[in-house]
Write a structure and sequence with these properties.
This protein is 36% helix and 23% strand. With 606 residues, it is an alpha/beta fold.
């Protein structure tokens, strides 16, 4: 939610800020703005809409020149997207960009209004800008210390004081912010892609730390003003990973990156043919004692957890609950002393998921985070982390991150089966061998892209669409449906196929197509009965089934066949055509695939 970038160095700050914001646009894109020191003044330019609007506005009016500035791309929380609500906020003395939510902004605003301040925007951010001005004593660090103790909520802030040209200040709480360290130039950013073109080295700013950047130095202080020595991190991917690399959209590029993402995540964790997750602070002895697992996540990550439930229960016979994080955190969950809480998050910053993690920790339950972004809040706070090595996922719709989250579910299932003895060592070895074959099979499934495009062309005009499945295929239906809704704006529902006739089948007509997922041999005939039911109501059916499934030409309009693997591994392959189907439908409908309306990649507010 919202992207922040800041630059100080020798380059043209406007160019670097716009370039960085372009890489962060996935975090929010309803308005954008920059503030740059120009001739000893802070010059602000901002515009409603995409970054292109800001660029165009600056072309027509004024494009600041200077070497130090901060920028922002917004996902509106308080106040509609508009020029005035866009960031930066502030006045000629102090200017800020903000990601997060200031919970006590109303109280702050009232207090400041009594002291003569007037507010222009509807944002929570403006109260911080005014508060900074109110507290400003000529000493930026002292001012920031006061502000930190006065504001409540979540924030990453980039700040410039007019009295300190060539210096950027930054603080954060519950919203991500890194400090990029270059040669003769330094940066702040919400995420690594914004700075990777310039430097791979960065510090992770911790809560209650104050970063001070000039072109030649970075200093970080604690709340008492004591300087802190920070650990320097180096990104292990390069600039190409954050570019489209010839693909028309990040989403399709990321779909095609799934074989290598899977390989990178799984191969290092299969040692001598057996699963080895190398979990710090979570020994095999501890894992052996686990009697119940709670998987907590949001959206697509939660859907990965649903597949995890199926696979872990099936293989290791450990009961698994799956919760949406926003529900888990407020429902007073019952957590036992032999339980494990598994948190799944691509970004590692999702507010509800982070809160769920903290709740589990408060109750003294061991926590394992499955996270894609190195050094993210969830990764840092969980007892143990298993990083998924998908590389940066830029498209708002999650694809390769889901794939690697699934892969870790399978590794966990294999590990628990081995530890609990529900599978013999040979069986675990054989399973791991089959996991290692998945990347090649994914390549084969990707060859079905043209078919998926064809099916998309047939269904693109639907107003409503159903995905149905049974067992683990039902979890896939949920993900297929979410993907389609998210990027194509077609209303779709996922239904457990056997549940349709308990009410919802009344919605099926010849105008409501159905995607039926039937990859599980034990449930195939049951699924075919459900397909017949919807066909009898006029629905056009796309059947997704195993390669060796019988022809069903009389009851289905289209069929898509998945290469043969054990039923339990089918989700890994079946996911791909669902992603491709959603992608091509969105493209054919002229949607903005990578930046769907109303959404942002990283949901750092609850
Ligand atoms: O970063 P996270 O994995 O915690 O994000 C969770 C969801 O917001 C995310 O998976 C969302 O549902 C995706 N945009 C769906 O494609």
């Amino acid at each position: 939610m919202c992207g922040i970038v800041g630059y100080v160095g020798k380059q043209n700050a406007t160019d670097v800020l716009i370039d960085g914001l372009r890489k962060l646009e996935y975090r929010g894109y309803d308005s954008a703005g920059i503030a740059v020191f120009e001739n000893h003044k802070i010059v602000i330019e901002k515009a409603k809409g995409r970054l292109d609007n800001l660029e165009q506005k600056m072309e027509e009016t004024h494009r600041p020149t200077g070497h130090c500035g901060i920028g922002h791309t917004r996902w509106a929380t308080h106040g509609e997207p508009s020029d005035v609500n866009s960031h930066p906020h502030g006045n000629e003395r102090v200017t800020i960009v903000h990601n997060g939510i200031i919970e006590n902004y109303q109280q702050l605003k009232e207090k400041l209004e009594h002291r003569g301040y007037s507010f222009l925007s509807e944002t929570d951010t403006e109260s911080v800008a005014k508060l900074l001005d109110y507290y400003y004593s000529g000493d930026p660090i002292e001012t920031l210390q006061k502000v930190i103790s006065a504001i409540q909520g979540s924030y990453a802030l980039g700040v410039m004081f007019k009295d300190n040209p060539g210096t950027i200040y930054a603080i954060r709480k519950e919203s991500p912010l890194i400090v990029g360290v270059g040669k003769g130039e330094n940066f702040i950013a919400s995420d690594v892609p914004a700075i990777i073109k310039y430097t791979k080295d960065y510090y992770l700013l911790d809560e209650n730390e104050i970063a001070v950047l000039t072109q030649d130095s970075v200093h970080v202080y604690d709340l008492d003003g004591e300087e802190i020595q920070k650990e320097l991190h180096t990104a292990n991917w390069d600039v190409e990973a954050a570019e489209k690399g010839g693909y028309p959209h990040f989403m399709i590029k990321e779909i095609h990156e799934q074989p290598s993402a899977f390989r990178n995540t799984v191969s290092p964790r299969i040692i001598d043919g057996l699963p080895d997750l190398q979990l710090e602070n979570l020994s095999d002895e501890q894992l052996k004692t686990i009697e119940r697992i709670h998987i907590v996540a949001c959206g697509t990550a939660m859907h990965a957890g649903m597949v995890g439930k199926y696979v872990i229960e099936e293989m290791a016979r450990i009961p698994v609950d799956v919760d949406v994080a926003s529900e888990f955190r407020y429902r007073n969950p019952i957590l036992g002393k032999n339980d494990l809480v598994v948190i799944i998050s691509q970004s590692g910053e999702t507010a509800d998921t982070l809160a769920a993690l903290r709740l589990a920790k408060q109750q003294g339950v061991p926590t394992l985070a499955i996270v894609n972004v190195v050094g993210s809040s969830i990764a840092r706070e969980a007892d143990s982390v298993c990083y998924t090595w998908a590389g940066p996922e830029i498209a708002v719709a999650s694809t390769k991150a889901y794939m690697v989250q699934l892969s870790v579910m399978y590794l966990l299932a294999a590990k628990f089966s081995q530890l609990k003895g529900t599978l013999s060592e040979n069986e675990v070895r054989s399973f791991c061998g089959k996991l290692m074959e998945i990347p090649d099979l994914l390549e084969t499934v990707l060859e079905q892209a043209d078919n998926c495009q064809y099916f998309a062309s047939k269904f693109q005009n639907a107003r409503d669409l159903f995905f149905i499945g049974r067992g683990v295929d039902y979890s896939l239906s949920l993900e297929g449906s979410l993907k389609l809704k998210e990027i194509s704006y077609i209303h779709s529902e996922a239904y457990a196929a056997g549940e349709l006739k308990h009410g919802t089948i009344s919605l099926i007509t010849d105008e409501v197509p159905v995607v039926a997922i039937a990859t599980q041999q034990a449930l195939y005939e049951k699924m075919i009965s459900n397909v017949k039911e919807v066909k009898a109501r006029g629905a056009k059916v796309l059947l997704i089934c195993r390669e060796d499934a019988p022809e069903q030409k009389d009851i289905t309009s289209y069929q898509l066949r998945i290469p043969l693997v054990d039923d339990i591994l089918m989700p890994l392959l079946t996911t791909v055509p669902l992603q491709l189907f959603a992608y091509y439908t969105a493209v054919l409908r002229g949607c903005d695939v990578d930046k769907p309306r109303n959404l942002a990649k990283s949901v750092t507010v609850e």
